[in-house]
Amino acid sequence: MPASTPTAAPPQPAAPAAPAPPVTLGLEARLAAIDAAMTLRLEEAAVAHEVRTAHLAIDPIDLAEVITVPLTPTRQPPAPATYRTPAAALLERAHHHMQSAGWCSGALTDEDGAVCLIGAIRAEARGDRDLADDASAILLDAVQRKFHDESVPAFNDRQRDGATPARMLLEAARLADARGR
Asked: Are 106 and 167 members of one domain?
């Protein structure tokens, strides 16, 4: 009989290791992990975009060739005529004139062409001084009803912007129309 050699015992299957308890991350840790993953994805996308577009030649654009403006200023279309009475129509045209030219205070017209209340009325009266005076009187009545100012120029110069003077021109136009003037 041959000499017996000690034989190693067959390996025993290892006992299954106890599963590790699941790691639970707090909300802040999960948000930080997602932020890091998204940052990596965005950086990869930026590099891929640069690689894909590196061969494209980009010439600088001269904005003077792209942006064009008319050489001569164009006149605004006439305002719609809502009122049929002369003073009411004049006040409505003065409102439209102030809206398109701009509002100013301290002068009938400024260097940019903006107008005050009286300047707008005179510009649209086209030389008819009696009509301009009638419209100005109606405007004064409308201003005094709401603001108790002594004159239209004092009211105009007290304003910060043209919104209230423009609104008063329309209110005066409604008042003139109601009076048949």
From this structure: yes
What is the per-residue pLDDT across 121-154, written as a single tens digit (0 to 9) for each?
999 998 899 999 999 999 999 999 998 888 999 9
Residue labelled with tokens 């942006």? 67
Residue ranges making up the domain that contains 45: 27-58
- Burial of residue 110 (CB within 10 Å: 0-12, 13-18, 19+) is middle
Average pLDDT over residues 5-29: 71
Q: Are 70 and 77 in contact (CB under 8 A)?
A: no
Assess if residue 137 is contained within a domain.
yes
Q: What ranges in the chain are assigned the alpha helix state H?
A: 27-53, 63-66, 86-101, 117-125, 129-146, 152-158, 163-179
Question: Nearest Cα to 179, choosing from 111, 106, 84, 97?
Answer: 84
Cα–Cα distance between 146 and 152 in angstroms, integer? 12
Count of domains observed in the chain: 2
Least confident range from 54-58, 61-65, 72-76, 135-139: namely: 72-76
Q: Does 51 share its domain with 133? A: no
pTM for the whole structure: 0.57
CA pair distance 157, 143, nearest whole angstrom: 13
